[in-house]
């Protein structure tokens, strides 16, 4: 195994461990610090935490130097990840990137939109991407500050609409639409999308006038296996109940241990769907745009699937 491959494995290992464990480590560290002679630092940070508590919903605090770390290039090459555009985007507009599928850990969405590893700024000059993630990621002390440097923001209506309306032009809110329940349906070779009842992002797009951009990552669901959890099984029922209580899905997944499989993932960014701005959209407007969006997503998938190893008879399964 060459040095390059070792660097790739290290890059992915540090990301997976950071994503799964670093928040809890930082929380434990701050508690520990509170019982040492350095306890005043805990109070200082607590004051900062309270003062800064809204930043994850106000566009975050991106640091381009961190987004361009060399480690993210090794992270990209482990799979590898690739970002493909189908048309140019106007930097004088704002966009809501609707990303599919969620996958187990949303590996490609992080690599594409929270780092510059796949060249987002070169493909879409003048547009700043903001990966939208669970609010819980920003509850952990210290870790929240690190995560915000990638440009990531919390997931709620106010956060979306701040990025798309109050932050100026040239912003893209990158939302993984399927959410927690779609995680539980992420199995290799399957394309199950939690989309039929997902209309909050449609409403936010209308309220802000941001164009919706369908995004699909071919190969994302192939990065991990899950213990079989068919709908109706006891395991799936337990997972759904746990998700409802804790807002975090508990998939029983495995790849190379906790590392994902080394399989290529290509993310295709489709053409934008223009949206007419309306502060108080009606249910008819929301349903009509949702129908247009679903049709555009299906077209994107069907147009490009043959390029990335998807069988002709395989189609999206929306639930």
Topology overview:
Layout: H1 3-33, H2 39-51, H3 64-67, H4 70-78, E1 81-85, E2 95-100, H5 107-113, H6 120-123, E3 128-133, H7 143-148, E4 153-154, H8 157-166, E5 171-176, H9 179-183, E6 192-193, H10 200-208, E7 211-218, E8 225-226, H11 234-246, E9 253-254, E10 265-269, H12 283-304, E11 317-318
Helix pairs in contact: 1-4, 8-10
Keywords:
12 helices; alpha/beta; 11 strands; seven-stranded mixed sheet; 319 residues; two-stranded parallel sheet; 42% helix
Q: Mean pLDDT across all residues, rounded?
A: 97
Alpha carbon gyration radius:
20 Å
Instruction: Note the quaternary state here.
Output: single chain
- Unreliably modeled segments: none
Helix/sheet category = alpha/beta
**Tally of distinct domains:** 1
The biggest sheet, with number of strands, parallel, antiparallel or mixed sense and barrel status, is:
7 strands, mixed
Query: DSSP helix count?
Result: 12
Strand content: 5-15%
Would you report the number of β strands? 11
SSE topology string: HHHHEEHHEHEHEHEHEEHEEHE
Share of helix among residues?
40-55%
InterPro entries: DAGAT
Organism: Bugula neritina
Family: Belongs to the diacylglycerol acyltransferase family.
Keywords: Acyltransferase, Endoplasmic reticulum, Glycerol metabolism, Lipid biosynthesis, Lipid metabolism, Membrane, Transferase, Transmembrane, Transmembrane helix
